[in-house]
Amino acid sequence: MLRIQALVMRAARRPAISTPIPVSELDRLAAIPASEDLLLSNHVGAWRSSSPRSPRNDNRAAAERALIIGYNGGVGSAVLSALQKSKPGERLLQGLDEIFLADQEAPAGPIPLESSRLLPPVSIRSGEELGRMIRELGLTQVIDLSSTDTVDCTQVCDELDANFLCTSVEEWPERGSYPTDAAIARLKPANAPELTRRSHLVGSGANPGIVNALVFAAMEEMARRTGAEPTVEALDLHSILITEEDTTHEPGVHYDADVFPMTWSPEHCLEELFEPRSFVASHGRVVDLGHRPVERLYRARCGDRIIDAMAVPHEETKTLIWRFPKVEIAFLYRIPEAARNALAAHPEWDASGPWKTHRLFPPTTTRLVGRDRVGILLCSRTFGELWMGFDTDVSQGSPYRTNATELQVAAGVIAGWKQLDREPGIHFVEDLDWRRFLGTASEILGQPVIFHDPDAKPISIAERAVGDLVRPKRSDRGEKLAAAAG
Q1: What structural domains does the chain harbor?
Q2: H helices within 35-172, ranges in order?
């Protein structure tokens, strides 16, 4: 029996989807007459089964058929709305002949993308099952907003002449959850499969995704302001920090101490915050900071504010250090106040604790205020600090029936999608045309904002530590922080 798995990912920032639902409808694909409509009523017209695709001949016109896996989640809904309502989305749709939607459950309401075609509720459990989908539907593109195994699925897509895009590196749940640094190491150039037929973009959301492209834009901006060349050496950079502050909240609403509210998947946010170790990427390697993310706060600029935030393991810290091995790189994340209060109230709990989760995004919650600031902080020994990023108000997400956080992810998906098929192989956003990527994202989010403090002193990540959020559980924290500072 074929299943399509659409579990949520650790870092892709989308809501959790319930237990997979086994179905057998797709087993009948090859035998269905051309006049029988296999799909739900979101699209008028009969389904005609496609024959298996041969390797693409770029000299002939081929129908472009895309499959979006995980459309029913928060980010999935935001992506569909952005395709329907934004200028970049409209242009992207013009180049597609068909879009199929797959998820574990049927939608509870109308789908925001009128031209899409719904598959019955399904769940992918292996690369072989995805391969069968590609052959039967004649797919040329797979957009994963769920949790299929990145390595397996890029290989299958490449073999069957389909491009692939996902928002973070994932693995099949049956294999267990990898720590972030171990997960991304599977795609390190020395370890990644050699794929030569199609283009596969990994980590194209907000972070990873938009922030990767912002590194290059921020370096050019600092160079413009200082007269130096836009290189690590000429700018005398000692660190590149990704900083984010999320102030989204429900005005006038007070939560019980065991409620963990979040603007993306609360369950997967908890997994992220309770990973075994925080780390900074420094001089080409991962340095353990000696504590879990939830146990320590670090101070840094985020937009026009100075924030105290957690050092959270993220894919972009690893992939960017491959490109910029002479600096230290970390992601500092300040979550909404109500979520911080919940963590502080239960220092004895971990990700598996008896949390009551609450989703700060539609349709669960619609009365929201606040904003999500996310960007890059360049720290120079000579030229101070420069922050460049997107400052997205919740109101900007309202036309798309989403919040600020998920709108940012959707913008990164659309921006990356528009650059699929440029070059064969596995790529990250820093391998793309970053100007074009940010140009697309800016059409949805507005222009990036910039703050420059030329007098800021160089500070290492270890020296930025300012206190504990919850009680630490590891006794070697101080030793490892000292080692990181050294």
Answers
A1: 210-399+446-485 (3.30.360.30)
A2: 74-85, 87-94, 127-137, 150-159
